[in-house]
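REQUEST FORM: STRUCTURE PREDICTION
Request ID: SP-0412
Submitted by: Lab K.M.
Chain count: 1
Length (residues): 210
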Amino acid sequence: MLKIKNNILEKELTYDNTVVLKYHIEYPTIIINNNKVGEFKFNTYNESLALKLKKRAENELYNDSVELYKFNKENGYPQRMYEVYRKYEITLNSGHILSLYTDEYIYTGGAHGNTVRASQTWNFRFNKTIELYELYRGNPYFILDILKSISKQISQNPEIYFEDACNLMINTFNPKSFYLTPNGVVIYFQHYDIAPYSSGIPTFLITNRN
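STATUS: Completed
RESULT:
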């Protein structure tokens, strides 16, 4: 098992003596005892993602939040503070395999913010990330099998999905949207892909990899 350190970037940005945006960005780094190429690549990659979001928060989103502040003040509307929140979850840390997902939540006013999920699975034996097809090398029809499994799971709780969820699932399926757990592969979809916002981010455990 790899030893993981949690890193946090956070700040409150002000305008006119008022906090108009705050961000809290978490990202992992592997504590490296030796000069290991894969672990270094992992650390560099995840730090770059965090710094990219930090830069966006302090520039583009901050400028937008100032404009919203000015507009609301001029029109007597309640002030809405922008929020940027990024967290990650390690879903598998075993041997030379590390899998995780990140959720980036951005609130820019309105009823609720928007969360975008991304994931990464690393094989440190080969110092690279794993693609979904690599988990199903013996099955050329693995995507079809995955879609059938998801369709079956949707049919078990249809009320939490859109009526045409199965068709939407086919259109929005992304082979990069997966992560590993001790119980199998998890496929996920973004908000509004196949279900309303209130249903959260839809996830589906695929246990059969034959």
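NOTES: Strands lie at 4-15, 18-30, 82-94, 97-107, 114-123, 128-129, 178-181, 184-188, 203-206.
Reviewed by: T.R.
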